[in-house]
Amino acid sequence: MRFLVSILVILQISLADSFATAKTTLIQFLQDNPHYQRDFYCNTPFRWVKNSFQIIPSPSYTPRNRYTKEGKINLRARQIELEHIMPAHTFGKHLACWKRGGRRECANDSLFKKMEGDLQNIVPTIGEINADRGNLPFREAPRRWLLNQYGQCKVYANFKDKEFYPANYSKGWIARSYLYMEKTYKIRLSKTERQLMQRWDKMYPMDKKERDFRNFLRVQKMQKLMRF
To answer: Which family does it belong to (predicted)?
Structure first.
């Protein structure tokens, strides 16, 4: 695991100077690679429709709330958003700008923009789940926990205990992203969180999909360096 994280740090897979630029790059990648058009948490298929990625109805995901409190259709349950695996709050809260005024105050901070735009830490997710997860930390689900909050999607947002339980198939990617961010940007993780990520990294090795995406980032990085 240490070797893998060290390689990622050496590559410095931070291809974008801002979150907006990173999203443009990732959107183009997803358009060019249809087999990647499945969301991170539920493995639900989606497709590009006009100017956004829209979810394709599938048994893999059932909205928790089909309608908003105002009785309108919950559009975030129908669309894909690009989310930070490690939340902005986690990688930004130690910065002076964040302490002065949160994310808005950090909008022009060069280090924050670099972290915010790091494609190593950005994935496509269903809007509703992105909203529900928010800044909830990842945790291992308690035994015999009934994961039926989003139909067949094996994730759960525990609002009471302020925890989020991801599916097994995404735990390895989550872990490697957290360990990469910690190593690259000197993020201070708690002992409990670091141990969890180290355990998931060992339990859930990198699959072909994750490996191919890492290779894409590596190639993009090399091309960027050659332009300078």
So the answer is: Belongs to the EndA/NucM nuclease family.
Flag whether pLDDT at 225 surpasses 70.
no
- Range of 126's domain? 2-226
45 closest CA partner among 114, 35, 177: 35
Number of structural domains found in the chain: 1
Q: Please give the model's pTM, rounded to 2 decimal places.
A: 0.89
Rounded CA gap, 75 and 66, in Å?
8
Q: How far apart are CA 181 and CA 209, in angstroms?
A: 20
> 122 is written with which tokens?
């950005």
Would you mind telling me the total number of residues written for the chain in this entry?
Answer: 228
**pLDDT (tens digit, 9 = 90+) per residue, 77-95?**
999 999 999 999 999 999 9
Judge residue 77's burial from the number of C-beta atoms within 10 Å of its C-beta, 0-12 exposed, 13-18 middle, 19 or more buried.
buried
